[in-house]
């Protein structure tokens, strides 16, 4: 006889496990089916968490090489122990995945190791990792299967020499020549890691700019900073193929607008051209759920509901493909199922690029506001004029705040500099409460701190910046 639940969740990533834990907290009987063998999804296993471990370690190595002497710190010969660097990354991942299992037990969530499939309304089958199948009856099904990397025609990914983010996080040697296809968030983070460790990194991007979706002024500042770090950019170029030779790879590309083919040599190629929803083979047709050409589930209520008793969250639905957005989706769906209010405002989901300098933004860009005909005022403050940044020798970048010209309500904020991934939260809270730029400008910030740049940018909206 099939076991009966209030909620069965397919997928144990940020959307799925947060949905499961919150549903358990609300007293619902919950099962979460995950095929990877560990909880946490792409983010925890082969995405956000391991990449930050490598970004942190590689930046410390860079700082020891480039910054310590100027601070009066003498060091001996520096070497990279790539095996230990990967081991500490794996330790972080292992500890966090086990932490989620602990939270499942604490909140009485049943963790099912296997691959889930919807058989029909209220029926889910799991093909168990240990063998056999198990069927569940449930009042609610939540699709939380995340996303997978998008490939390119004619390029065979082997996760050894031609890799996605998964392979890029597990290289066993430092490649001398690395080519990165795609100048988005994932690509630039991975490129930064290996450039700091000694690789010659070339970034090939189809568009004529880096970081599509980011404010244009921020993207230009970021590109200047990355060039100083040794990254080479080939923008407006279309990759047509990668030939695998015994000793090297040969990447062919041509101008996106047409022109002659060029060939670049590489030891490793990272393909980071985007992601698509991982929704094939879930039996969605058995409950009348449809997807678009990128696998994104089509919802019926404009947000999470895909059919009666069927919900979808995270990368499986529209909105930014970010772990914290998926977390919020999962929490909201659990609360909706429990009869509570649940909502996520995607305009207030921040984006962060964990390079050095960090890049962060939330709300509308200047380009979006201009296209929509919205009159706005901006305040901008450089870290060069921030006392803590000057003291720390971390003066690259700025904070920019955009506010409605008539009401002064904050419409967006865009930052590049050390620590801005943390600072953006202040803007998110302010925008959640409908704050004006003056509200931030008149809020005391500790001195000396990098976050004073946020306050000074807010002051700048009305032209009363007080510092250098």
Would you mind describing this structure in some detail?
The protein is an alpha/beta fold and 468 residues long. The chain folds into 3 domains: 217 residues, FAD/NAD(P)-binding domain; 112 residues, FAD/NAD(P)-binding domain, CATH 3.50.50; 105 residues, FAD/NAD-linked reductase, C-terminal dimerisation domain (Enolase-like, domain 1). Helices cover 31% and strands 27% of the residues. The protein has 13 helices and 22 strands. The strands form 5 sheets. Strands 1-2-3-4-5 form a 5-stranded mixed beta barrel. A 5-stranded parallel sheet has the order 7-14-8-9-10. A 5-stranded antiparallel sheet has the order 18-19-22-21-20, with helices on both faces. Helix 1 runs parallel beside helix 8. The longest helix is centred in the N-terminal third of the chain and has 25 residues. It is globular, with a radius of gyration of 24 Å.
Helix content: 25-40%
Largest sheet: 5 strands, mixed, barrel
CATH superfamily of the largest domain: FAD/NAD(P)-binding domain
CATH architecture of the largest domain: 3-Layer(bba) Sandwich
How many domain regions?
3
CATH class type of the largest domain: Alpha Beta
State the end-to-end distance.
Answer: 72 Å
Helix count from the secondary structure assignment = 13
- Indicate the structural class: alpha/beta
For the largest sheet, list the strands in their spatial order.
1-2-3-4-5
The gist of it:
The chain is an alpha/beta fold and 468 residues long. It has helices spanning 14-25, 41-46, 48-66, 82-106, 165-168, 185-196, 216-228, 323-337, 366-372, 387-392, 420-432, 437-441, 452-461, and strands at residues 3-10, 30-34, 109-120, 123-128, 133-143, 147-149, 162-163, 177-181, 200-205, 232-235, 237-244, 249-255, 262-266, 268-271, 275-277, 305-307, 310-312, 351-353, 358-363, 376-382, 398-404, 410-417. It has 3 domains: 3-148 and 276-346, FAD/NAD(P)-binding domain (3-Layer(bba) Sandwich); 162-273, FAD/NAD(P)-binding domain, CATH 3.50.50; 357-461, Enolase-like, domain 1 (2-Layer Sandwich), CATH 3.30.390.30.
């Amino acid at each position: 006889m099939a076991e009966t639940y209030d909620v069965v969740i397919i997928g144990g990533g940020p959307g799925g496990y947060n949905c499961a834990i919150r549903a358990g907290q609300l007293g619902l009987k919950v099962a979460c089916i995950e095929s990877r063998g560990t909880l946490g999804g792409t983010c925890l296993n082969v995405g956000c968490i391991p990449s930050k471990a490598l970004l942190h370690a590689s930046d410390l190595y860079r700082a020891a090489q480039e910054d310590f002497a100027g601070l009066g710190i003498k060091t001996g010969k520096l070497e990279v122990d790539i095996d230990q660097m990967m081991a500490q990354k794996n330790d972080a991942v292992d500890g966090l995945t086990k932490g989620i299992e602990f939270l499942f037990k604490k909140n009485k969530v049943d963790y099912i190791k296997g691959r889930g499939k919807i058989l029909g309304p209220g029926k889910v089958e799991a093909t168990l990792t240990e063998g056999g199948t198990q069927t569940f009856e449930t009042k609610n099904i939540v699709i939380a299967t995340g996303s997978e990397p998008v490939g390119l025609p004619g390029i065979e990914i082997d996760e050894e020499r031609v890799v996605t983010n998964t392979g890029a996080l597990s290289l066993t040697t430092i490649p001398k020549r690395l080519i990165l296809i795609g100048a988005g968030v994932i690509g630039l983070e991975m490129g930064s890691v290996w450039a700091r460790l000694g690789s010659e990194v070339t970034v090939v991007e189809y568009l004529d700019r880096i970081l599509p979706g980011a404010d244009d002024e921020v993207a230009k500042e970021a590109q200047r900073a990355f060039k100083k770090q040794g990254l080479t950019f080939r923008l407006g170029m279309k990759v047509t193929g990668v030939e695998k030779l015994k000793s090297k790879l040969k990447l062919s590309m041509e101008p996106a607008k047409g022109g002659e083919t060029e060939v670049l040599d590489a030891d490793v190629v990272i393909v980071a051209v985007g992601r698509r929803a991982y929704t094939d083979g879930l039996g969605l047709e058995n409950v009348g759920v449809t997807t678009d050409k990128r696998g994104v589930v089509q919802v019926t209520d404009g947000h999470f509901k895909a059919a009666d008793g069927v919900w979808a969250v995270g990368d499986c639905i529209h909105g930014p493909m970010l772990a914290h957005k998926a977390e919020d989706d999962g929490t909201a769906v659990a609360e909706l199922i429990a009869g509570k209010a649940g909502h996520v405002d995607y305009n207030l989901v921040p984006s962060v690029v964990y390079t050095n300098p960090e890049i962060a933004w939330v709300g509308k860009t200047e380009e979006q506001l201009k296209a929509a005909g919205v009159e706005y005022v901006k305040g901008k403050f450089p870290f060069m004029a921030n006392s803590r940044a000057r003291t720390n020798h971390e003066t690259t970048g700025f904070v920019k705040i955009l506010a409605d010209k008539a009401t002064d309500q904050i419409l967006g904020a865009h930052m590049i500099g050390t620590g801005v991934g943390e600072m953006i939260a202040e803007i998110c809270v302010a925008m959640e409460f409908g704050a004006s730029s003056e509200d931030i400008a008149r809020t005391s910030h500790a001195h000396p701190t990098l976050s004073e740049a946020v306050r000074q940018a807010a002051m700048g909206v009305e032209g009363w910046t007080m510092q250098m």
